[in-house]
Amino acid sequence: MKRKLSWLLILSCFASVGCSTKQAAFPAGKWVDLSYDYSKETIFWPTASPFILDTVSVGMTEKGYYYSSYGFCTDEHGGTHIDAPIHFAQGGRTVDQLPLSQLIGPSVKIDVSPQALANKDYLVSIQDFTQWESVHGKIPEGSIVLLQTGYSRYWPDRLQYLGTDKTGNEGVSQLHFPGLDPKAAQWLVTQRKIKAIGIDTASIDYGQSQEFSSHVTLMKANIPAFENLASLDQVPTLGAHIVALPMKIKGGSGGPLRIIAFIPD
């Protein structure tokens, strides 16, 4: 109850105009950044273009002040990013149509690192969830589910992280990393009614997927996925609260994501 009240206090503070310490004391805790930065090292899908940062201007101006400005180019689906439902579901929500209430909320973390690090093609199963629930209780409706495979330890080594450092279609054919079993995706949608899901790999479907069935199942239910998450080892199994705010691209199928976790004391 204390943690729930703390989170309500945070949200009420955010929602209040001119909120100050006189109105409400910010709850004790820490913020954890679950996002990677964007650079030439950022990992993208083998068929995607890399992130590019171009210098427009850097240095002292004729009028004596310093000025810097840059332009950037990036695919929607690279680095820490969001898959909006339209990505795999015709008529699904675009990234700008996702309500904030679906991107902010309490999380549960399922750690399958031992299994996933032993098997690059590991699929997170219904059994993984039911075993988790036997210890921690039923996954609450409206949760943001985080899947920790341990693969963030390999970032930004493409070979270790993706299973290949090749690009193009040859690279796609050689992808090997863990993901969510499509049967488990269906179970989460119908039996637990989650609001969003995230994973510390390049895709919610495993590397060798041909049909991307977990994407399809989730996104037909308008459930977005957060991919290439960082620092999930710093997020507790229960009790954290997620704020996942993507670049608001009108009509976009996804985009760069700044996702953070608040962990109350």
From TrEMBL:
<dbReference type="InterPro" id="IPR037175">
    <property type="entry name" value="KFase_sf"/>
</dbReference>
<dbReference type="Pfam" id="PF04199">
    <property type="entry name" value="Cyclase"/>
</dbReference>
<protein>
    <submittedName>
        <fullName>Cyclase family protein</fullName>
    </submittedName>
</protein>
<keyword id="KW-0732">Signal</keyword>
<dbReference type="GO" id="GO:0019441">
    <property type="term" value="P:L-tryptophan catabolic process to kynurenine"/>
</dbReference>
<dbReference type="GO" id="GO:0004061">
    <property type="term" value="F:arylformamidase activity"/>
</dbReference>
<dbReference type="InterPro" id="IPR007325">
    <property type="entry name" value="KFase/CYL"/>
</dbReference>
<feature type="signal peptide">
    <location>
        <begin position="1"/>
        <end position="24"/>
    </location>
</feature>
